Amino acid sequence: MPNNYRPFTTTVLGTPRIGPNRELKRAVEGYWAGRVAAAELAETAAGLRRDTWTRLKDNGFDSIPVNTFSFYDQVLDTAVMLDALPARVAAIADPLDRYFAAARGNADVTPLEMTKWFDTNYHYLVPEIGPDTVFTLRPEKILAEVAQAHALGIPARPVVVGPITFLTLAKAVDGAAAPITRIDDVLPAYFELLDHLVDAGVEWVQFDEPSLVTDAINGLPELAEAVYGRLSAVTRRPALLVATYFGDPGSALGALARTGVEGIAVDLVEGDVAAVAAVPELANKLVVAGVVDGRNIWRTDLDHALGTLATLLGSAGSLAVSTSCSTLHVPYSLEPETGLDDNLRGWLAFADEKYTEVSVLAKALRDGRESRAAAFDASRAALATRVTDPRLHNEEVRSRLAAITDADVTRGEASTRLDRQQAKLGLPALPTTTIGSYPQTSAIRIARAALRKGEIDEAAYVEKMRAEIADVIALQEKIGLDVLVHGEPERNDMVQYFAEQLDGFVATANGWVQSYGTRCVRPPILYGDVVRPQAMTVEWISYAQSLTGKPVKGMLTGPVTILAWSFVRNDQSLADSANQIALAIRDETVDLERSGAAIIQVDEPALRELLPLRDADKPAYLNWAVRAFRLSTSGVADDTQIHTHLCYSEFGEVIGAIAALDADVTSIEAARSKMEVLDDLNAAGFANGVGPGVYDIHSPRVPCTAEIAESLSAAIKAIDPKRLWVNPDCGLKTRGADEVVASLTNLVEATQQVRAGL
Ligand SMILES: Nc1nc2c(c(=O)[nH]1)N[C@@H](CNc1ccc(C(=O)N[C@@H](CCC(=O)N[C@@H](CCC(=O)N[C@@H](CCC(=O)O)C(=O)O)C(=O)O)C(=O)O)cc1)CN2
Ligand code: MET
Ligand SMILES: [Zn+2]
Prior knowledge:
The chain has two domains: 23-388, TIM Barrel; 415-756, TIM Barrel (Alpha-Beta Barrel), CATH 3.20.20. It is built from 28 helices and 21 strands. The protein has a seven-stranded parallel β-sheet. Strand 2 (114-116) and strand 3 form a beta hairpin. The chain is globular, with a radius of gyration of 26 Å. The relative contact order is 0.08. Bound molecules: the ligand Nc1nc2c(c(=O)[nH]1)N[C@@H](CNc1ccc(C(=O)N[C@@H](CCC(=O)N[C@@H](CCC(=O)N[C@@H](CCC(=O)O)C(=O)O)C(=O)O)C(=O)O)cc1)CN2, methionine and zinc ion. The ligand Nc1nc2c(c(=O)[nH]1)N[C@@H](CNc1ccc(C(=O)N[C@@H](CCC(=O)N[C@@H](CCC(=O)N[C@@H](CCC(=O)O)C(=O)O)C(=O)O)C(=O)O)cc1)CN2 binds at residues 121, 440, 442, 445-446, 448-449, 492-495, 515, 519-522, 565, 648, 734.
């Protein structure tokens, strides 16, 4: 039992860390390039932490998360804390260089795998647990951040990924048993950490356990009770806060409450307050009530949130106001967003605005709503305009959707389609292609920034992008690829680009959110009904096609991915929003077809990402997601070839849905999983074209011809070569030009070798 702790009232579970103007991105990338020294990087990091903590303190927060800063990823940080990095990086002497090698690889070392953090667009690095992995506490980072915070007078609450979540997210390597079987081996390191934190003067520590809102493994509630029973039995320790978020912990909540932990954080945006109020064991706990949405950008309905808090007053021992999860997933501040109209601006809250909301709610809980009447009035007035704003209700779109029938989501018989398409396209066996983007060079980005600042005009910009397209077409012809792409130079991002052209979306000026490492995205905001005022891609694709006799793929992003990578309105179902986007994409495919495109790719890399965390909710999601994709792709004739592309995930659970998309050709990430996905596709009865990625594009490594030929030979064993395509794992936008030329040259050469043996 901790001998001395006080409950707190006002907090947040975590914060963004990339910097309000992406300072950390620039510093880390500068360090990698040798432009920034380690000491300068450390100074930038310390400054960002100090600014974040100070802001929270100024908002009256009486418990402030620390150790939520990271140079790359908090799961990787936890692996470092447990000394559980793979042996292949162990020889790298400098700790920072070792860390970055584990994160992104180098010429000699492949990095850890990267995958999605629950149902978000944030990616974490997957810890590898082998039979010989030994866990040893390395508390240096966490203690250093605590010391920095204490020196600044910050009431620091260190945050770590808890043992259950760490192990359920890790993967077994080299024949090891499932990582979760190592729980008894990992706990001593956590025990030792608790002891260090007492020495450091820490009052509360937060263990993040979002795995408790999933069905990742059987028996999670029982495991939680056993593990936190043991952790809370440690005699010398700070008070323990276990944070569940991204959903409802279900019976894990009661299980945690039966242990000796002092606090439990619950997500009351995703979860159900009545279920929390019904747990009697919470009567002696601090309940950290996540009533302000940590991962979406809508302004909080303060009346509703205060009502939720009031529901808990009778059942919780004490109550703190918080966000539902870390604000890592939202931009820093609305302040730079000067281009928004007043209505829209009034509906939004980014991280800074959320801190104000948390603080207002905590004070209203203490002193009564009247004590903060102005804030409540402002919230009410702003949200009232959402009900009446005509942009949220477009009758034309709504009646069009209401009239959709099964015929609108169904194409002709697949094998007939493929025959007609082949008659039109006349492709060789094992057609070679790429996924869409070519390197987004800094020249391209600088041109776009110059257009934005008015330094060049639209015509000059279009000229530059056309020159890029011409280069990319010429390059592909030279390398000898069969199906070409235009390279996507004109796109800042595969989702934002479309959102900027669709009514119902608004893009932000500076709303950067970390996607992985130093890579950021600016998720657009889907606030209204979606309308496509005009064709979005046809001119670029037609131009590219005019330069070559080979087919150029039309290139679109699918409705599920546009939805997944946007901040989405919360006043209607996701399915309704997906279908509205699907209609816009459908109209675009029809326009592309009319302009002469024979192949159109509709990317759905986020299909897996929105999969609900609870098994019971999965079938309904997959049903509407597949239907939205099919709505977007069923408007074209049978001899137009529809491709789709999927990446960044474990496909096992969605393999049936991938087959149900009924794309003519599916390119799918496969290199890192050694083509295993092909057997799964066969088992799901998938009989259309498939392009398993033959090399990993997330690493600067150039694959040699023999290696690609080997991947292809493996693929041919699983798939009839008549259906097989050859392509990389994903788009090439993050790669350098030289790597791309070398890799694709080898890809074409390997294909020629394998074709000769058919
Ligand atoms: N939304 C989304 N989510 C996704 C993916 C994706 O492609 N999009 N892919 C996966 C994640 N992979 C990703 C891969 C790359 C980047 C990426 O490269 N991001 C870029 C920003 C891309 C962008 O928006 N670029 C803009 C703005 C570029 C910019 O920073 N411009 C400078 C000025 C130009 C310069 O000096 O370079 C500025 O505004 O200050 C553009 O090209 O116009 C970055 O972090 O650097 C992000 C995610 C899964 N989730
Ligand atoms: C994250 S999937 C990327 C697909 C897109 N067409 C590209 O090549 O960049
Ligand atoms: Zn991809």
